[in-house]
Each structure stands twice: as C-alpha cells, then as structure tokens.
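Components:
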Amino acid sequence: MTNANRDHDDWLSTIKWDANGLIPAIAQDASTDQILMMAWMNKTALQQTVEVGEAVYWSRSRQKLWHKGEQSGHTQQVHSIFLDCDSDVIILKVTQQGGIACHTGRLSCFYRQLDTSQKAPQWQTVAPVIQDPEVIYSKK
Amino acid sequence: MTNANRDHDDWLSTIKWDANGLIPAIAQDASTDQILMMAWMNKTALQQTVEVGEAVYWSRSRQKLWHKGEQSGHTQQVHSIFLDCDSDVIILKVTQQGGIACHTGRLSCFYRQLDTSQKAPQWQTVAPVIQDPEVIYSKK
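Structure:
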C-alpha cells in the first residue's frame, strides 16, 4: 500500500468495527431530523455509500451488500455522515426517495410507540402505511 | 408466572434481544430531534428506564447497569419509546439534563462529520465542548 492509499483509508480505520466487521448506521431525514431506520454497514458498504452518494448497507439476514432501494426504488440520498465519540456508530443524514424507508410501507421503521398508560405497557402502532408493500415490491 | 405477569411482560418479549441479550437504544432530543447518543440496553435496563422515567443503559465496557448521569448529573428524562419493524432497535425521546450527553462534554456524541471535499475523506470535529469533562466528572 502506498502512502497515498494509506492516507486515503485513515477515515475508515478510525472506525471501531465490531467483531463481525460491522457498524450500526442510523438514517435520519436531513430536513426533518426524523429517524427513519437503523441498519448495519461493513467497510465496503460505507465506502460504496460515500462513492455512490446513496446508502449501501450490509444485510445481516442475507449476508450481502444491500443498496437500499434497489428493489423498491426507495433509495436514500446521503447528504452528510457523522461518527460518535466511541467511533462505533454512524449517522447518515438522507433524503428518503418515495417518502418510505420501511419495508412495511411506512415512512419510518420506528412506527410502534410504548403505551405506558395502562398497568401492562404495550407497543402501539402510531404511523400509517403509505403504500402496500405488495405494490412496492412488485415494481419492475 | 401468573397470567397477569405474563401479560405484563409481553412488551419485553416482543423485542428481539441480540446474542448478548442487548438492544441498541438511540437517544434523541424530544424537542429538537437531534440524535444525542446510541447505547445498549438489556431487559433490566429497559424495565428500569420505564419504571424510573430516566434512561438506564447496559455498559458493555463495564458490564453493569448504567443509569445515565449517575456521575455527571446529566440524566435523560424519557418522554417516549419507539420500536422498529424488526423489533431490534429502540428510540428514546428524551430531555437531556445539562445539555450534555457526551462524555467529552458535548451536547451530542455525534460531533464528527465526514469531510468529503478533499480526495482523502476526513472526520472533522464540528461541535464545541460545552463543559470540560474534568469539571463534569469531578462533581460530588
């Protein structure tokens, strides 16, 4: 590796990747600051995110790179990236294409809120489905 | 376990705890929606958070419950809790006492932004230290 390449990769080696080589990435709406989702990235996913300007995650369930929106069209244009004090979590500030980040057809994946008004707390759905997932994922 | 107890714990069993019995918890300012930090909770931490109304995390480095602010006074009053579609990430909407969530003395732990204006991207500090950590942690 040349010195130039080494310098070029400093920003990646600053990150404390976990035992699986991953880091949690929080996607936040760049204009409203609503949190849309959290997913995981490996080094290649983060490199591609910066190169392409759109969020590329590592799918832990499918064990492959996942260019968000590749099926649905609901890509995330990345405006800025932030790293926390422990260098083990990042935030992406994004524009969410289609206004739908969640595979359930909702804007945000965080659509359940804990209702603590009763003795037994309960998760309650508090955000509407914008588009039926069957429609979203049947697109060609 | 009685039926009543079982019902009472349904909201906890909905959560998909990871292999270490933990879930990532994103703390977000309830009024501005700025993301303050991300930490981890086990079942007891989340139960205590709901009971106490202040954020209680599980410190992975110290392997113990961590009532945020126990040393610094910078507690987090919890207004609402959200769960994502995969049931494996939560958001806490909080009021950050002292306006400092980060152990570096900054409001948010996400104080470094990736500067991609040069050929070699770099993490740049973009938020000020509000109070010297030596002062924060010398409080009695």
